[in-house]
User: Fold this.
Amino acid sequence: MLRSQTFLSTWSQERSMKWLVLLGLVAFSECIFKIPLRRVKTMRKTLSGKNMLNNFLKEHPYKLSQISFRGSNLTTLPLRNIWDIFYIGTITIGTPPQEFQVVFDTASSDLWVPSIICNSSTSTHVRFRHRQSSTFRLTNKTFGITYGSGRMKGVVVHDTVRIGDLVSTDQRFDGVLGLNYPNISFSKAIPIFDKLKNEGAISEPVFAFYLSKDKQKGSVVMFGGVDHRYYKGELNWVPLIRAGDWSVHVDRITMKGEVIGCSDGCTAMVDTGSSNIQGPGRVIDNIHKLIGATPRGSKHYVSCSAVNALPSIIFTINGINYPVPARAYVLKDFTGNCYTTFKEKRVRRSTEFWILGEAFLRLYFSVFDRGNDRIGLAPAV
Assistant:
């Protein structure tokens, strides 16, 4: 197992958490990482369960070159889903290790968790206790980040981060582990995937997501290789619009054979950190009108009895159709009412821009190939 140190940082989020610790990454790996994911319905209910993929520890994963890895060791880690919004898993930070729940997010590049120095009324988050870590080292570098859900600021520090076969019994969402390109990093720390890649800790510069439709178990993220048993048929490779961002070109969006979006083509980011499919307000409003959804608060609702009759919405990407049926874009809230996962994306761009989040990715197994700057998509099993 390789171990190295890199940057970690402390931030504040001005909406709900005053201070957070942002951690740049430290790589711990064997040949391939494979991390099973488990969905959590709420933050407050404890869901029972166990690691459902331990039986895969001795398998031979599928390599992109169609050659199996022989004798590869797989490290597994269960993750959960909070409110059907985020898939989270356990990492550890510091020496001795302290456990944290983080989102594996392809839209960001920084790793952060809350710090004990946070001045916040939010008490459900585990906080990093830097004085208890013998490998902690402070720097004088500060920075700030603005997210769609709030602003954050902090100071960069050094410490050790581990990813391993850890079983979490906690359902708190503590932070984010970014898997985007290093040029997206606000802290300028080396992202964890780049550490794994640069130190030769993974066999190939790829990672992949299988997001199970099961609300509690079965989901997995894997590093360094691809297991073909999680998808049907062949992977369809889509080149990135540019190296440095997990965004692809969408040819068009259709419903019942009619173009309803991306009439001249558009850009879409494949985002494992978002639960929704997001797009321009005018297009989202039109989709809601076409399916008879009515606004209520921040969501748009449809009759649950009508879901089976609602049409699929088809995203055509690199000449391949990716249908999203109503059973995928409509979810139930905690009261049993049905709402859509289509949401307006407020972004200042000269061209049409979309976010393909978990509502899309639960249907399609996704491979993020840093070596060739492309994304592979195939129907999930």
Notes: The two ends are 32 Å apart (CA to CA). Residues 303 and 338 are 6 Å apart (CA to CA).
